[in-house]
Amino acid sequence: MSGSLEKQHHSHHESSHKQTSRLEKSVTQSQTVKKSIRRTLRATEVTHKGEETLTTLSKKAKRNYLAVDTDSNVIGYVVPVFRSSHLVARDLAEAQEEVKEEGIGYVVMKNLFSKEEDFVNMKVEKKTRKATIRESADRLSLGKKIHEKQEFTKKMNPDSLTHPPEFMVKPKGQTVWEGKSVTLHCTCAGWPKPRVAWYKNNVPIDAKAHPDKYTAESEYNMHSLKIHSCDFNDTAEYRVSGLNIKGESSSFAHVVVKRHGEKVVAKPHGFSDEFGVTFKTTIIDKFAVAFGHEGETMSLGCTVIVYPVVKRYTPEVLWYRDSVLLKPSKWVSMHWSGEKATLTLAHLNKEDEGLYTLRINTQSGFETYSSYVYVKDAEVEVEGAPVAPLDVKCHDANKDYVVVTWKQPAVEGSSPIMGYYIDRCEIGTTHWAQCNETPVKYARFPVTGLVEGRSYAFRVRAISKAGASRPSRVSDTVVAMDPSDRARQRAGPSAPWTGMIKFTEEEPTVGVVPGEPTDLAVIEATKSYVVLSWKPPAQRGHEGVMYYIEKCVSGSDNWQRVNTGMPSRSPRFAVFDLAEGKSYNFRVRCSNSAGVGEASAPTEATKVADKLDLPSAPGPAVAIRNTASSVVVSWGKSKDVKHLVGYYIEHSVEGSNVWVPCNNKPVKCTRFVSHGLNTGDKLVFRVKAVNASGYSTHSALSEAVIVKAGVAISGPPSGIKMEERVRDYMVISWKPPAKTGGADIVGYYVDYRTVKGGVTGQWHEMNTKAVTGTSYKAENLKENVFYQFQVRASNMAGVSGASLPSAGLECKEWTVAVPGPPCGLHVLEVRETSLVLLWEPPTFNGRSPVDGYYVDIKEAAADENSWICVHDRSIKLMYKKVTGLKAGTAYHLRVCARNVVGVGKPTKGLGPIVAETRPGTNEIIMDVDDDGVISMIFECSEMGEGSEFIWSKNYKELTDTSRLTIETSGGRSRAIFNHASVEDLGIYSCKVTNTAGVSASYTLTEEVLKRLLDMSFDHKFPVIPFKSEMAIELQEKGRVRFWAQVAKFTANCQVEYVFNDTTVTQEQKYTVNFDKSTGIIEMYMDSLEVTDEGTYTFDLVDGKAKGRTSLVLIGEEFAVLQKKSEFERAEWVRRQGPHFVEYLGFEVTPECNVHLKCKIGNIKAETEISWFKDSYEIQEGDEEAEKITTEDAVMTFNIAKISKKDAGTYEVKLKDERGKDHSKFDLTGAGYEAVMNEVFRVIANSSTEVSILSTEHGIMLYSFVVYHTEELRVGWLLKESKISHSERVQCGVTGEQLWLKINEPTEKDKGKYAMDIFDGQSGVKRAFDLTGQAWEDAFEEFKRLKAAAIAERNRARVVGGLPDVVTIQEGKSLNLTGNVWGDPAPEVTWLKNDRELVSDAHYTLKFEHGKFASITIAAVSTVDSGKYALQVKNKYGTEAMPFTVSVYFPEEGAKV
């Protein structure tokens, strides 16, 4: 109540100020009109001198805001300011409602401007400058007089105009005794009629909420407040406030309540006398909206705090469902732990759906909390089948009869429900028996045939074409017995047992036939059955009676007994098997053991038909946003509906036509909150009503609504503090509201009041126009006076309540040299690695203007010493893009301003702001449409209530529409450049209001602008792109094909074929084709003639796009193409007979064998094939004929290893009756050279990599080739220089080995060697790097081999001269000489049987000239026989030449 009165107070102040300003401006606006007209006339005069007059308009086209001359030419524009005065007067009259008097604004307008048409008939007069100045002075004087007259009139006639409230009779203070009542009276005047509100200590009094305490009355401007049963707490200052559009007025009165003695103690409201305390109950940890499925178990709970805690005191905990108190059962259990109240729902069913309320009762009052529980259907057993009915109940139970009712389910399945089956089960058994043979559509069915005294339970199943539903929840147990017996059982014994038994003698009743029943009536009639009810007969004896029911068609007397085989025991009976549409009469007979009594009086004719109609469709559904996952749906009641069960609500995503139930239990109210919806879905809703007869048709669909949080009034601002103060003004700032109500804060309103000696004055408005920032400069204050301030926030939903008042702030001089902190900090374009920070200049600049700003940042988790500046030098712009952020990290930001004196205090840290890119974030897209229009497009999928796109350039809102045109449709906004140029360069940003900071920016650079302008030109003047420009190709028979391929085109693309500016059509000479599936354009010509020289063009037209591709075919190019065409045609003729598919050519195999080959075609058996060499035919049997082979139409002449003797001219001729052909290959001159070059190529490419080999003479580099010929040129290079042949460096060929020998290598021979083999062109090089380790290894190996060779050459050895065996006769002398060699000369030793011989008389050993070693054995004997050896030795080695000496006797002639 307080918030609403404060909002009204603010709105009245605002409207009052606006009305006053409008009235004050009404006169000055009239003067502005005349000034505008005069300026227009003068401007037109100048225009007429240098320009032509504007085009005249017809009378219909003339507007009363155009100034015209005598020739009806438009000469200027008149701003019709008087219209605003007229609107002001009209608004004022409407605000006053019942008042019919004219306001002063309307009077002034009426007197000054009687008719708008006067402006049309005005005459144009030319006046001098002096006359104009004179008139201006007169007008100023006249305006001053009018203003003074107006002020005088206001003072003299205050009641003729609106005026603020004024208390003619003020309430008086009173003193009363405790327990008495007191009434405060006042009289308040004002126009419009003021609203009056009462306050107690500045707290609004809600008399309707406390009718036992207060009574407020207002009649004929007389207002009173009565306070009942005053107690000590009623002692207070009471204020009455009157409020209208002109302002507010208040009056105060004090009420003092006295006590009767000291024994009377004031007791607060809700005081418990039993425990001596006042209990305060708080419910926390509340259960939210819950969702469950049938068959599940759900628990709901809340934590309850009852303060103070009193031992042995337990509050009363009650649970309600749809305002019905719940009691423990097998489905419901409750628990109270002393702190937490829990409700458990076992085996959920649709009957459990509803609004659950927890109520905590204490001796001081109660506290409640409510939330909704939704129960979804269990999965159906058969696809498309309906879901189970619900809320099965039993009514009107009797001895053998009971009425079963139920509620239809929310979902019928894939087809409508045809009816219901009712099952019963006798308690104590598990067998379910079906009660009806045919489905019943009516949700009410009488079950007969029960056994008296037994208990039953019932369930219901729904049936459709798709199948049967699951059974419903079982009903409560019902006993088949007489209602009177049931009543006696409930009542119990009527009197206590006295110990005495009394007998009463009665008349015998045995054999008494019962009388006729009475009060027979039809209590229920449907097209399926009729239910009868009656009273038992008075005469029936003491034994039980049974009943027989009879029927007959109305108008006849043919009575038929309905229940012959099973008489009824209950005074209720349901008659089935009646013909629908016919009328029947019924009567009842009673029977007992004595016989059957007389029939009762028959009923009136009863027509068999449903008496209950289907409900009518509910009123149109209206869906309103509620929260991010709920929508409020309301609808109109079904008209003229009887026995309404409730309503079912369904929703569907717009366009899907898939309907989902919002509730599974019908509700009777016409407003429902649908929870559990997906945020962002666009839904439509519909409603259907249901009663026992069935469902109504659906209501009209609601308008589509997007599921998102609704907009509400924001919370109040907070944290008011002073930023700056001077002698006559103060600058205050505050924090934005913590809760914005789902909409952007659009402004703030500031109120102030004075504080003198601790006494506060009345609140007054500081600003009538909302402040957009979070600071305000309060001006026109008084020095050394204390003030308090309060702030209200405003969004699209309205104005919030006031913030807490600030502390008393004194207005006095505050000398600060540096600037104050900037204000209005906020961020846009928050992304994972960057954000944009914006701010407004400080309200206090210090002693000099602000010349720069610094932006600081720190992580939210860091301490205050972690602030760092994001830039080195101060910036003059009031925005900064902060980059380099860490994704997912929270930051704080602040800004400080600087001037010449220094840097001021920073703002309070803004944050925490998490660096993240929200899902669905879009960026601004530059677009160039088909018409070449350049625009920026920004889309938002989170549009809220009242959301708008705000475009800015360099972060200043765009107001000039000369450069940009903004078009917005739904969640898409497009900023169109009117004439894009360098003037449009800058940063463009767009934000969406009433969203969670949806924004983006785009920097338009000169480079990007140039590219966009090029694209715009291409789109304005589109060119059809070609994938391939026009080309030409020759085909078989010399046919010429001109073709091109289009890259992009539509089905409407047309082609014009042009030759030398003449359009070509489809005719004998030209064949044209455009294949639109591939985009290939073709034009064919069978042959080229001399007249076909020129330019060929394809002209394309596709809508407004055009394309052209041309080919110039003239001069030498045309002549060459014509010859090729004739050649191709001749070739085609040639190929009609035996011909060469491939002409005679050569091939060199990898083994360097040369083959002459040709491929022939169209050959027959009788075709003659002849080979010639040098014009001589090669005959069969010739040596060269063996070289010719034919395989797969390929003929080969195998020359093998070619040499100059194979040179010559080779020719092959083909001939038969169809024609002839020949092919020649000249293997001389250039032909021979070409073949040899190919041979050289094969040889060169077959060469292996260069290898190295060390010898005793030096180092050899070598490579192997597949074949070598004397004509092959091979060169060796060292360090890219050719190696010349010398005695030390030699190159050559050995077989297929190409080598380079370096004798006696030295360090100079180190380097990179290459073997260059001629391959017919540039040559093939094989390189070897003879440096480093390769050189070291090769050189060491060379030295080793050389040393070994020297050793082998100079080694001591026996050259010859000694035989292997010497046979000599005993007694003779043996002389043997051996030739030896060695350098140095060897040492010579003679051995016998491995023992060295010494020269003596018997053995003479000589070594002469270092070459000849001799041994002489004088007079040999048998002792000298043995194995001898000549052993030589020097430093290079030792060698022994063995021989055998055999001595024999002459006489024996044999060896010894």
Number of helices: 9
In terms of per-residue confidence, which ranges show pLDDT below 50 for 5 or more consecutive residues? Answer: 1-124, 262-266, 491-507
Q: What percent of residues adopt helix (DSSP H or I)? A: 10-25%
What is the oligomeric state here? single chain
| Total count of strands | 104
**Main sheet makeup:** 6 strands, antiparallel
Structural class call reads mainly beta
Terminal-residue CA separation: 160 Å
Strand content: 35-45%
Q: Give the C-alpha Rg.
A: 61 Å
Provide mean pLDDT, rounded.
82
- Shape designation: elongated
Q: Could you explain how this protein is built, in words?
A:
The protein has 1456 residues and is mostly beta strands. It has nine helices and 104 strands. Strands 49, 50, 51, 53, 54 and 55 form a six-stranded antiparallel β-sheet that branches. A hairpin with a 2-residue loop joins strand 91 and strand 92. The protein is elongated.
Main attributes of the structure:
42% strand; disordered N terminus; 1456 residues; 9 helices; mainly beta; 6-stranded mixed beta sheet
Strand-helix topology:
Elements: H1 2-50, E1 66-68, E2 74-77, H2 82-96, H3 104-112, H4 129-156, E3 163-169, E4 174-177, E5 182-191, E6 195-200, E7 203-204, E8 214-219, E9 222-227, E10 236-244, E11 247-258, E12 271-272, E13 277-278, E14 280-284, E15 290-293, E16 298-307, E17 316-321, E18 324-325, E19 332-336, E20 340-345, E21 354-362, E22 365-376, E23 390-395, E24 401-407, E25 417-426, E26 432-434, E27 444-448, E28 455-464, E29 467-468, E30 478-479, H5 483-491, E31 518-525, E32 530-535, E33 546-553, E34 560-561, E35 572-575, E36 583-592, E37 595-599, E38 606-607, E39 622-627, E40 630-634, E41 644-653, E42 660-661, E43 671-674, E44 682-691, E45 694-695, E46 705-706, E47 718-725, E48 730-735, E49 747-756, E50 759-760, E51 764-765, E52 775-778, E53 786-795, E54 798-799, E55 809-810, E56 823-828, E57 834-840, E58 852-859, E59 868-869, E60 879-883, E61 890-898, E62 910-914, E63 925-928, E64 934-939, E65 949-953, E66 956-957, E67 964-969, E68 972-977, E69 986-992, E70 999-1004, H6 1006-1020, E71 1026-1034, E72 1040-1046, E73 1054-1059, E74 1062-1064, ...
Parallel strand pairs: 4-11, 15-22, 96-103
Antiparallel strand pairs: 1-2, 3-5, 5-9, 6-7, 6-10, 8-9, 10-11, 12-13, 14-16, 16-20, 17-18, 17-21, 19-20, 21-22, 23-24, 24-27, 25-26, 25-28, 28-29, 28-30, 31-32, 32-35, 33-34, 33-36, 36-37, 36-38, 39-40, 40-43, 41-42, 41-44, 44-45, 44-46, 47-48, 48-52, 49-50, 49-51, 49-53, 53-54, 53-55, 56-57, ...
Helix pairs in contact: 1-2, 1-3, 2-3
